Amino acid sequence: MEHIQIETDLKSSLESIFTEKSPTLFSKDTPYVAGVRKQAFDKFAQLGFPTARQERWRGTDLSKSLAPDYEFIMEAPGENVDIEKIFQCEVPHFETFLVAQLNGWYVYRNSPLTVLPSGVVIGSLAKAFEQYPDLIKQHYGKYTEQSAEGLIALNTAFAQDGIFIYVPDNVTVPDVIQMVNIVDFDRNLMLQARNLVIVGKNSHLRLVQCDDSINHKVTFINSVSEVFLDKDSSLDHYKLQNKDEHSTLINSLYFYQESGSSLSSNAISLNGGIIRNNTTVKLAGEHSSANIYGVYLMDRNQHIDNQVFIDHMVPNCQSSEMFKGILDDHASGVFNGHVMVRKDAQHTNAYQSNKNILLTDKATVDTKPFLEIYADDVKCSHGATVGQLDGDAMFYIRSRGISEANAQILLMYAFAAEVVNKISIPELRQRIDDMVKKRLRGELSYCDQCVLHCSTQEKKVSFEIDVTKI
Amino acid sequence: MEKEQNNILEEVTQGDYKYGFYTDIEMDTAPMGLSEDTVRFISAKKNEPEWLLEFRLKAYRHWLTLTEPNWAHLHHAPINYQDIIFYAAPKRKKELTSLDEVDPDLLDTFNKLGISLEEQKRLSGVAVDAVIDSVSVKTTFTETLSKYGIIFCSFSEAVQNHPDLVRQYLATVVPATDNFFAALNSAVFSDGSFCYIPKGVRCPIELSTYFRINAANTGQFERTLIVADEGAYVSYMEGCTAPMRDENQLHAAIVEIIAMKDAEVKYSTVQNWYPGDKNGLGGVYNFVTKRGMCKGSHSKISWTQVETGSAITWKYPSVVLMGDYSVGEFYSVAVTNNFQQADTGTKMMHLGKNTRSTIISKGISAGQSNNSYRGLVKIIKRAENSRNYSQCDSLLLGDKCGAHTFPYIKAENHSSIIEHEATTSKISDDQLFYCNQRGISTESAIGLIVNGYAKEVLQHLPMEFAVEAQKLLAISLEGSVG
To answer: Strand, helix or coil at B252?
Structure first.
C-alpha cells in the first residue's frame, strides 16, 4: 500500500500530489473520466477549501478539521481483506445485500462487479469505469458538474474508487442494499469516497448508507454520491451516521429525478465530530416527488450541518423536507434548506420544516429555511422553531409518577419519532427506533461500530413508577 | 375567464407613477462627485462644529476602505459615486418665520402630495417636518411641542441648538463604520429630523416628516435621530416620494432610535419613491440603515413600513433588544411591480432577558419584479426566556415575478422560543370566484384580497397613514384597486 503524507498547507500539497501522482490517479480512467478529473482539479485549484466567509459555510468551520496532517491511500487494499472480520452486520431479520468500502476502496470477495440475475450490477466504481464506459459517460460527474463547492471538485479530482450500482429498467430489487463505509487505519486519514447509483425506468431500489469508523484516529471523509432516477422509478434512501468525535464527515448527495420518479431520503445522525450532509435534489421531470427527512441527536461538542437544496425545474412536482434535532451539552446544529422554484415551474408544492430542541444554554442552533420562487401558481411554505421540552407535557407525565429523566426521554423520543416513523422498512425502523432510544438514554456511543451492528436487542423500556405517590 | 382575469391583473398591475411632477425651485448644490472637499463643503455649508466635521471625515475615510455589499438578492448597474450631487438645498432667500413666507412653488408641491402644511396644521394636528432635497424647509408645531419639552426639529437645527444631545446620541445605534451605506451617509448626510422626548412625556401628537427627492442626479442622505427618554412615548411617521426621472437617484438614509427605560417609540413609514417606469428605466436606489435600540428595560420599539416605491430597496429596520423585558416589533408590507427589486426585512437581536419580538412581513410581487424577505433573529446565551414569532408571507401576482424568503435564525439558549412561518402563494381562484359570485368585479376583488392580505400590517399604522397606505397599495397595483 502506498501512503502519502499530506503537508500542512493542505491545498498546495494536494495540488502537488495531484501532479506527482497523476499516473496512479489516472491509471483506471477512461478518457472521459480523465477529462472530468482534470477539469475538477482545475476547479479545486481555483475554489480551494470552503471558508466561513462563504454563505453556505457560515455555520460550519472546517479550519480545525483541515489542520491535522492527513494521509492518503493511493492503492486498493488487495483482494484478501476479510471484511467480515472487521465488520459484521447482525440486525435481526434484516436481510441486506452488503457492499463495503474500506478506507474509500471497494472491498470484494470474488469479483469487483457482481451482476445479479435481474441484471442489477453492484460493485467497484473503478471497475465500472472500464466495463460500463457508456453508463459512466452518461452519468458520472454530470450531477455535480455545476457545483461551486471546492470539496466536490476535490472529490472528483482525487476519487479513485467507490460503489457503483446500476439497476436496469423494470426491476424491483428485492433486497435492501447496504453500503458500508468503514475507516480502519492507524494514522490520520483523508479520503474521497465516490458513489454512483443509476436506477432505470420503472425500477425500485432501497438503499442504506452507513458511515462507521473502527479506530479513533482523526479522519476527514469527503464522500460524494450521484444518484440518477429514471422515469417512474423510486428510491428509498437511508443514511446512518454514527461516527467518533475525531471525524469530519462531509456527505454530499446529488439526486437527479426524471418524470414520475419518487425519492425518499432519510438522514439519521446519532454521533460524529463534524457531520455535514449536503443534499441536492433536481426535480427535472414532471410529477416527480422528493421527501427529504432528517433527525439529529447531538451532544458534547458534536456539530451537525444539514444543507438541503431542492430545485423545482419543471411544473407539477412536489417536495417536502422535515428535519428535527435535539442538541445537548455544547453541541451545535445548522440547517439550511433552500427551495428554488424556477420560472414556469407552476403547480409546485414545496414544504419545509426544521424543528429544534435545545437542552442546555451552551447548545446552539442556526437555521435558515429559505425559499426562492419565480413562478406564481405554487404552494410553498416553511417553518422553523427552536424551543425546549414542553413544560405542560412534562408536568402531565410527571404528575403520573414518571421520573423527570424518564419523562424527558419520553418527550424527546416522541419528538424524534415523527421522522423515524417515516422509515418504510419495518426491520430498519425498529432497529433505528431502538437506537434512538438508546441514544437518548446515553447508552449508544460511537463504539458501537456499525449502527446496525449491535447484536443485543433492545430491552423493553420500563418506567419507574413511584407507588407511594399514587 | 382566465384570459380576462389575466388582462385585468395586467391592467391592475401596470399603473403609472402618480407623483411624477417636478418642482422648479432654485437649488443650491454641491459640486458633483465625492471627495474630502465635498464633505468639507457640506459641513461648512451647514456651519457645523468641528467635532461633526471630524465625524464625517472619519466616516468618509472608512467608507473608502469598504466595498459595496453584494449579498442581497438585487441586481443593478454599478453606482458611480462620482456622478452624484451629494448636496442640494433649495436656495433660501431669507429666514422664514411663518408659513406664508415659504416658497409658493414649494407649498404647491406639498399640496400635490396631499400634505398641505396648513391643512395638516389645522385639521390633523400633525407636526410636519418636510424635507425637500435634504434640507428641512419648515417645521410646524415646534412651539406647541416645546411646551412639553419635546424637541422636534431638523437635524441641522439640532446641531446648532442642541449640540450636546446630538453628540451624545449620534451614531450610538448605527456607528459610522456599520456598513458601506451607513459610512457613506455619515460622511455626507445633509439633513433630516431630530426628535427628543424628555422623561415621562407622552408626545400628544404624531410627529411626521415628509421626504421628497427633487433635483436631478442628487442623492438624498438624510439622517434621523429619535431619542425617547425614560417613560416617554412618541409615534413618528415618515413618508417619501420622488419625481419621475430617468436616471437612478440614490438614497442612503440612516434612522436611529433610542428608547430608554419604559419608553416606547412607534415608527411608521410609507415609502413611495419613484419606482422607475414600466420598462425598468430610472427609479430610486434606496439603501437605508434603520435601527432602534431598546436601551432600558421594558422599552419598546415598533417599526411599521409600507414599501411601494423605489427601483431598488435595501432596507432592514432592526431592533437591538438590550434592556430586559424590552419588546421589538416589525410590521411590513412590501409591494414590487414592473422591474422593481426589494430586499427587505428586519433584524431582532435579543441581548436582554425576557425580551420579545414579533415580525410580520407581507410581500406582494407583480410584473417582473423580485421581492425578498431577509431577516435575522438572534437570541444570545444571556437572553433567557426570550420569545420570537415571525411570519412572512408572499403573494405572487403574475408568473414573471419572484418572491424569496431568507430567514436566519440563531438560538443560543434553551429557555427561549423561536417560531418562524412562511408561505408563498398566489391569489386563490376560490377567493376570486367567491367575490365574483357576489357581484364583485375581478378588479375590485383583487383589491379587496390584497388589502385584506396586508391588513395585519396596515392596522398598525396611524390613522392618517393607514388611509394613505391603502391608497398607495392601490396605486402601486394601478389606480382602481382598493
So the answer is: coil
Q: Which residues of B touch A391 (CB under 8 A)?
A: none
User: In angstroms, what separates the C-alpha of A387 from chain B's closest C-alpha?
Assistant: 4
C-beta atoms of B409 and A387 within 8 A: no
Work out the number of other CB atoms within 10 angstroms of the CB of residue A279. Answer: 24
Nearest chain B residue to A326 by CA: give it: B414
A215-260 pLDDT tens trace: 667 888 888 999 999 999 999 999 888 777 788 889 999 999 999 9
Chain B CB within 8 Å of residue A394 CB: no
> Which value does ipTM take for this structure?
0.73
Residue B121: which pLDDT band, with cuts at 50, 70 and 90? Answer: very low
In this complex, is the C-beta atom of B6 within 8 Å of any C-beta atom belonging to chain A?
no
Q: Is A119 left (phi over 0), alpha (psi -120 to 50) or beta?
A: left
Q: How many whole angstroms separate alpha carbon B215 and alpha carbon B245?
A: 9
**Mutation target among A55, A306, A373, A380 for the B interface, most CBs of B within 10 A:** A373
Exposed/middle/buried for residue A281 (C-beta within 10 Å: 0-12, 13-18, 19+): buried
DSSP conformational letter for A172: B
Q: How far, in Å, CA of B145 to CA of B129, rounded?
A: 13
Q: Please report, as a single letter, which amino acid is at residue B83.
A: D
In three-state secondary structure terms, A42 is helix
Instruction: Report whether pLDDT(A199) > 90.
Output: yes
Nearest to B405 among A365, A371, A375 (CB): A371
pTM, two decimals, is 0.78
Give the pairing of strands B417-426 and A378-387: antiparallel
Residues in chain B, overall count:
482
Task: Give the span between the Cα atoms of A465 and B352, in whole angstroms.
Answer: 40
Q: Average pLDDT in the A151-175 region?
A: 88
Q: Dihedral (C-alpha) A67, A73, A74, A77: value to the nearest 10 degrees?
A: -170
Residues in CB range of A413: below 8 A, 6 or more apart: A436, A437, A440
- Side-chain-facing half-sphere of A395: CA atoms under 13 Å: 3
Bridge partner residues of B421 (DSSP) = A383, B391
Helix (H, G, I), strand (E, B), or coil: what is residue A322? Answer: strand
Separation between Cα atoms, residue A43 and residue A31, nearest integer Å = 18
Domains of chain B by residue range: 2-476
pLDDT in tens, B396-421: 887 888 888 888 988 888 888 898 88
Question: How far does A334 lie from chain B, in Å, by closest CA?
Answer: 9
Compare all CA atoms of chain A with the CA of B413 and give the residue at the minimum distance: A361
When pLDDT is cut at 50, 70 and 90, the band that residue B462 belongs to is confident
Nearest Cα to B209, choosing from B226, B227, B231, B197?
Answer: B226
Task: Check residue A170 and report its DSSP letter.
Answer: T
Min distance B235 CA to chain A CA atoms (Å): 32
Sequence spans of domains, chain A: 391-470
Contact check, Cβ <8 Å, A360/B417: no
Q: What is the pLDDT of residue B240?
A: 60
Contact A373 B402 (CB under 8 A): yes
Signed CA dihedral, B53, B56, B60, B62: sign only? positive
Could you tell me the pLDDT band of residue A54, with boundaries at 50, 70 and 90?
Answer: confident
Q: Is A138 on the interface with B (CB under 8 A)?
A: no
Question: DSSP states of A448-459 as a string?
Answer: S-STTT--SPPP
**For B197-237, how does the pLDDT look when each residue is reduced to its tens digit (9 = 90+)?**
999 999 888 887 765 555 555 557 888 899 999 999 999 88
Question: Mean per-residue pLDDT for B290-308?
Answer: 91
Q: What are the CA-CA distances from residue B56 to residues B39, B158, B162, B244 (Å)?
A: 7, 16, 18, 31
Strand partners, B395: B364, B425
Pick from B143, B17, B28: nearest CA to B88: B28
